[in-house]
Design a protein that fits this description.
Isochorismatase-like_sf (chains A, B, C, D); six-stranded parallel sheet; homotetramer; Rossmann fold; 6 strands; alpha/beta
Chain lengths: 218, 218, 218, 218
């Protein structure tokens, strides 16, 4: 077992990065916010905090586009007849993200535009039952930079599947929101346990994107 | 969002149960113990605590066999040339579970016998890159009862994939051990968040197995 | 090895059937037809033959709805920037099924209605990188009844993945069209090799659906 | 649709090649041969033809080792209690490849040595429910060169999954054997339909391996 001081931090970005926006949805999401609407999924943070997370995440989207870094928008959806909820209603979560409800749509503030890479999912991991890996292979992606929510559920489990699939995974900790402060913190530690240097701040990623842009101009 | 008092606990066992022994390995495992050998993976608990976890887990194996409940032994393995570690060495874990080392073998104390269902895996989730679902479909499994370790890694992520695959998942909390007390506790809460009633004690499962045995005799 | 006369035909439908309409798309599809448009994918059969296949397939859709048998519409799609074609352009097929082109839409004649189960895919098997299995698990599906095209590509490989996933698979041979007569015939034989009794005619399936409807009224 | 003369043949090997030996098993296999034992799976070809296929395949193994090209041995296995046959006995195939029977072992003649990459599978595609992709990612594989059998079943469907996973796939047509001459021929055409230049002869692959060896010496 490694002693803590021996765990070298990996480079922040290895090879081709891809920015992944997990479930920035009007309701039942994470970094997003819907004043007054619970959305079936518990979420933590004041309205002000959530607006700030959204704003930082939006900055990342804009900087990624500017640097030619691919951005992928994930959206959790469930069929109206409930046939595909599986076990998702057996715990703390209630009905959420039903298709075609306005509250299920990707948040306008996050900068999603028609034509952007959009991947709907019906479970927590953005890899589970989706074409995410098909897209990532096409993009020759090596590093996934995750934002959104819930930190402890969809972000965490997307990170795990990315990790198991050999991707370098980073979580932008000031751009994710969890079901509770405790769960949020524990999951960030869990992700750092899997990949040293996984936990990043938006400011670091912004700098990296600017450097990428500059290197392409050179 | 459900209020805590409204979250009904699900039946402990729904349909066909299967007992899953996650990584009871001499080293780099969990419920198992190897005095003096670190195994490349951090684990928490005194030797005495781990021996007790192992003993309780062993009781479950014997009771499952007695009641005709299928038991599946999962074993994490990695090729000696290191080609399949992926990102697993990028965080807190060091080289672990190398094939053919005595310390990688399933612990003798857990009751594994040649001919038992045995599933080797190369990542954390027992579903990832394995034939576990093929076996579970063949067994018509509906409820997975998880023991072993690490609580926060292999048990947690196997639970998540079982959950996403529509299985009822239970974690026997006094038969799992984590990388730290904190991570162990947080993961048990995460699993309970996903499926109310997921957290169980060995004594409850034992009672359930005895009832199953009795119902078959009737 | 079984002698041909010993291969018992399985019941046509086992448990819950689901009717799967594979790639009935205006162009680049199969059972569908688009006069004068090649669509990037070779297809065989006169316009008249294809119209008849479509008509028979449409009858199945209507009968399935009438009997309460779930119907799933599969649609192959590719991103306009070509990032997700993978190896699909390395052989006989040219660019096909680009998102948002009118010719990629599900054929109007097949009876698809908004709200129906719709699964977009980016490869040949309807299971690959999609949520089909999530839906089938939710429907408790046991038998898949395949129509559409291409017989030798998307239908064949969807059948194989269904077969590997333990589903009873049936191909309605007068409701599928292939890339060539030879490939169509060979694939039907390949599917029958995997599951005796896989090859069915639309008339048989219609009868079965009517019987299901009658049994529910009883 | 491309006209036949416009379909450019792809380079025979793109990037890192990996030689895949599919089910060279004493019985129930393909390129292998077991005089007088049927093995539950139909296979075509005289004993002499099969011995020659095996010999050519063995040459490829030796040349791959000599050139530092990774070799992966796939082996189909089924649990003795039959729990994992799924639908595999519903068609032309009878019980085959039961674990631990001498006839299930990888053929001695093919050059398999303890320590080689070995992947057991329980279905047809070598990707389905196995860690093959984990290994291929670790090897940074880009081109899969398939040998073994059955041409029309395990080789064909492994090719398809490799193709869907963006690998360049090649089938060594004089090193594969099918369930019938007809099925063997049709499947070779199907693989060529997917990737122009997929069909290769052992002599070509041998030359390529020698060139790889020479380039490393330079």
């Amino acid at each position: 077992m490694k002693m803590k001081q021996d765990i070298a931090k990996q480079p922040m970005i290895v090879g081709q990065p891809v920015l992944v926006m997990v479930d920035f949805q009007g309701n039942g999401g994470s970094g997003g916010y819907v004043p007054g609407v619970e959305g079936g999924v518990p979420h933590v943070g004041t309205l002000e905090e959530r607006k700030q997370r959204m704003a930082r995440a939006r900055e990342l989207v804009d900087a990624a586009r500017d640097a030619g870094v691919p951005v992928v928008f994930i959206q959790e959806v469930h069929r109206p007849d409930g046939v595909d909820f599986g076990r998702e209603l057996d715990g703390d979560e209630d009905v959420h993200c039903v298709e075609n409800l306005p509250s299920t749509a990707i948040s306008m503030e996050i900068g999603y535009r028609p034509g952007d890479y959009h991947i709907p999912k019906r479970r927590y991991s953005a890899f589970y039952g989706t074409d995410l890996e098909i897209l990532l292979k096409g993009l020759k992606a090596q590093t996934l930079i995750l934002t959104g929510g819930l930190t402890d559920v969809c972000v965490h489990y997307t990170f795990v599947d990315g990790h198991q699939g050999d991707y370098y995974c980073r979580v932008v900790e000031d751009c994710v929101g969890g079901s509770s402060q405790e769960a949020h913190d524990a999951s960030l530690r869990a992700m750092e346990y899997l990949q040293a240097g996984a936990r990043r701040k938006a400011a670091e990623i912004l700098e990296a994107f600017k450097a990428i842009k500059a290197s392409k101009a050179a």
